[in-house]
Amino acid sequence: MRKLLIAIIVVGIFPITAVARDYDKDQKRGKHRQDYIKELGLSEDQVKTIKQTRKDMRRDMIKLHSEMELKQLDFEDELQKKNPDNETLEKLIDDLAGYKAEHEKHRLKMIVKMVKVLTPEQKSQFLEKMMKRMMMGNQKGEKDHHGDKRD
Question: For residue 129, how many C-alpha atoms fall within 13 Å in the half-sphere facing its CB?
């Protein structure tokens, strides 16, 4: 009975910690966005356009991520078989690489759309900050915006 109670408590805590972690990430992202808005001196129209662009991208990414996760599960299932089929694994690897490429393509398109609404001065500031962030992350071996460790 005691083991069952401990298991129920542990299982009940995991969703709470996951929600708290996600909330914390959202808070940090929100502060980061507010800093950009202030530093770049974005107008209300620019902020509105950028928010809509991000929202549209997030909708596309939700679909893409779900497809990618399903392929990842298929890959794991095939790999765990007693005799995994190399052809199937190769196809799944190609599919996963395609999803990752598509994800990066969407991300870069979003940046292009965002940059189009900026003034030349804002664009220069934005690109400088973006490059610094990318360089700092690469030097420190930090995680990228998706939580993956950078090489």
Answer: 15
**CA distance linking residue 12 with residue 6, whole number of Å:** 10
What is the C-alpha separation between 148 and 142, in angstroms, rounded? 8
What is the gyration radius of the CA atoms in the chain, in angstroms?
20
Dist CA 117 CA 44 (whole Å) = 11
Closest by alpha carbon to 36, among 25, 51, 24? 51
DSSP letter, residue 148? P
Quote the CA–CA distance of 139 and 88 in Å, as a whole number: 37
In the block, residue with structure tokens 């997030």: 58
Distance CA 67, CA 65 (A): 5
Contact between 94 and 9 under an 8 Å Cβ cutoff? The reply is no
Query: Tens of pLDDT along 99-115?
Result: 999 999 988 898 899 88
Predicted confidence (pLDDT) per residue in 20-78, tens digit: 554 455 455 555 667 777 888 888 898 899 889 889 889 888 989 999 999 999 999 99
Global pTM value: 0.59
Query: Which residues contact residue 13 at a Cβ distance below 8 angstroms, ignoring those fewer than 6 apart?
Result: none
